[in-house]
Amino acid sequence: MAMRPLAMLPEILLFVGGLVCLLGGSFTPRRRQWTLRVVAAAALVAAVVAALAGASAGGTAFEGAFAVDVATTTARVVGAVATLLVLALAADEVAGDDRESETYALLLFATTGALVLAGARDLLVLLVGFFLASIPLYALVGLGRTARSAEAALKTYLVGALFGILMMLGVTLLYGVGGTTSYPELAGALAQAPVAVVGAGFVGVLAGLAFKAGSVPAHFWVPDAAQGSTGLTAAFVTTVPKVGAVVALYRLVVALPGPLDWGLLVGVLAVASMTLGNLAAYGQDDPRRLLGWSTVSQVGYLLVPVAVAGRSDLALPSMLLYLGAYAVTNIAAFAVTTAFPSVRDLGGYAGLVRARPGLAVGLVAVLLGLVGTPPTAVFVGKLTTATAAWDGGMPWLTVAVLVNSLASLFYYLRWVAPALRRDDPDDDLAAPRRWSAGVAASASAASVVLGLLAGLVWAGLGGPLSP
Description:
It is globular, with a radius of gyration of 21 Å. Strands 1-2 form a two-stranded antiparallel sheet. The chain has 467 residues and is mainly α. It contains 20 helices and 2 strands. It has a domain at 284-467.
């Protein structure tokens, strides 16, 4: 197999962009650090263009260690676009800050790691992507420089270190009994390996990816990071790392059919995540913490097609469609919170429909979209993932998706209700941040448009994984 380094051009562009922002920040006056935001945005746009241009070529890179297929291309586009939206939030939150350039660099590095995760076909490449996506994450969470952000950063680091160790242990076990780290070669080698060792190895790798996705049992850090960090960091860490982790887990389940039922294990984690996330969100009054627990629940829905990977032809396109739908919808919800940074209680949004009717409509659209209300994109995502579970022989997963979607309506309405009350709004709602309001409006509109055009998007997501 050929090396084909240009097959990873989107990842290279993002990493180089991160280096330029990191080094350029040392020589750029604070009043002109906005130029590095332009550099970061240019790198993200170039990555999207390179991803779309290279989609038709397909194949693998670096002797089969990295795949370029429909899953990788979708992850590249969704990850880069989501980071671009987060970058717009940065214009409100870190412009002129003494850590402005470092923020842009960390965002690009973490996005690069997430995309490497998505395309990895080798356990060592998977580890590289995991750490490249994780280490910048710890710093991003701590950049809020408050007691709460410090606590969140420490918790994220400790949980990440624990599950990172479990992941390395899992890779070691699989390599030890398989004699290789390449997915295609492992698939045959593990068939003759001891079942207990293979199971322990897979569970270890699954633990690491569960941390990146924010799934049970590695979810402890998500609500704290969402509540304690800056708004742009909260939007990023609850969105982009999940894109890479979910695709990586899907690829692993398909590539390593073993003596144990990996799908059943993933299905149990899916139900646990969506149920626990919903139950914990019920009592939350801070909108960002509520969205943090909502993220844990949404990851559960995203894991449903992973559970039926290889059993249903609907699994891959439903997962990819849901990833794109969730990304724009989740960022839109967080953008509303960054538009009104001083409002950290659901009741504080009372009268939003009178103060800012456009933002109120956008907020209602994305919150009901997260429930799974038509015609939003998340509705199509939930419908197709539930159908994939039924088609894959796991009807109990379909029931779990429907029941948990209905149950989630309660806590989303706790935010919708005050926003739609025609009370006299507080002064905090008078002047939203310009960039954040723009992101909220555009991302909420994108959620609806993507839902309306879901048929066309679905047709483009039907390609197979690289063999």
